[in-house]
Amino acid sequence: MTRKRWFRWLIPGLNIKRWLALFSVGVGLLIIGISLMFNYQWLAVVEDFVLQYSFELTGFYNYNILIGTGLFLLAFGILLMLIGTSKVIKTIIRAVLPVQNSKVSDMIFQNIRLEKGPKIVVIGGGTGLSNLLRGLKVHTNNLTAIVTVADDGGSSGRLREDYQMIAPGDLRNCLVALAEQEGVMEDIFKFRFDGNGDLAGHSFGNLFITALTQVHGGDVEEALKAASNLLRVRGRVIPSSTELIKLVAELADGSIIEGESNIPTANSPIKRVYSQPANPKPEGAALQAIDEADAIILGPGSLYTSIIPNLLTDKIAEHLRASKANKIYICNVMTQPGETDGYSVADHVDALLRHGGEGIVDTVLVNESELTPAIIENYRKVGSTPVEIDSDRLKAKHIRTVKANLVDNKDTAIHNHDRLGKVIMDIVYAMKSDMEPKVLEYYLQRDDH
């Protein structure tokens, strides 16, 4: 083990040094106890042997050699204790949880660090939410994803109709995103059956969650706990409600569109969305997570069909407004055809406030990376344009705007999950230290972002 890895055991706050000290005290008491049991005079034999050896070497009794020998034996004993303890820990860990990385201490320190991370609640759905979770899970284990369940299209819609259960699709994506090892498991959960049979079009992950729900007597929360244990999920995935919800949109022209999958196809701006039944019953664990959170994040994702549906669940918006945590909205980089055509950042926030009330957002994170003409043109072909950043309108609402480089600017305008996660953590820690807004903005515009 290198010197650096040895010194890591001395990092403050890991709760390791106190137990090593306790172990050392125990060894010392053990030695004293054995000495008292067998008469400490037997130690004099060792002392006489060392002094006799020093006399033969130097011609006189050198008590400094006696002290040096004692220090050597003490250091050697401590070394043996550390090596033995390390080997025992590694053997136990490999027996309980086989690891591919031989540096078990790295895993221990990472787990300790993650367990001490801030409590963060993320609210939304779709690919935006799962992308954010991938970026956050490397910084804290104390993650709670509150996920919309109003999806009624594709595999999720069919399972919802056949088994009268909430849509599993977004829940599945969040479970995979928070899994310790994504890789093959991610491929399996995303796998869709082809052909013309009954399974055609179904996602394996959706079927897996449906099966677990049936095994647990229809209890979705228990099914998600079981799935989390199987996937070794970092954090929790909670549906905003377990009721069957139909999402309905009232358009600017007065027409009504029913069904989450139908709303983006409307040819008129959305005035508001609401659920049937109204004020569906929330999951208690979701409300508790909001109350205990250090930070709450809305988005990124489809404004009207992924984020706002969670605010329609009874008491969620109320608990959001009452929370003392920092409440951050991550705005999409591009507008979404059929939902946010022509929307600026402030327009997105206005929609959130109309549905959730004042006080559900205090900070907005936006991308300031300049997109290439090729990317903009590709999005323009499908009716999407860059979201205009109008910070002055947000400032008038006493909402701060934080700008950071969040997009790789390669092929798409999708947030880079690693960069997004790091910036979010910087915001959370900066807010906890009460940085002034201008200092915070400078802090986030460093080159490493």
TrEMBL record:
It is found in: Cytoplasm. Gene3D superfamilies: CofD-like domains (3.40.50.10680). Its main location: cytoplasm. The chain crosses the membrane at residues 20-40, 60-84. CDD domains: YvcK_like (cd07187). Keywords: Cytoplasm, Membrane, Transmembrane, Transmembrane helix. It comes from the Bacteria. Required for morphogenesis under gluconeogenic growth conditions. Belongs to the gluconeogenesis factor family. HAMAP family: Gluconeogen_factor. This is Putative gluconeogenesis factor. The lineage of its organism: Bacteria, Bacillati, Bacillota, Negativicutes, Veillonellales.
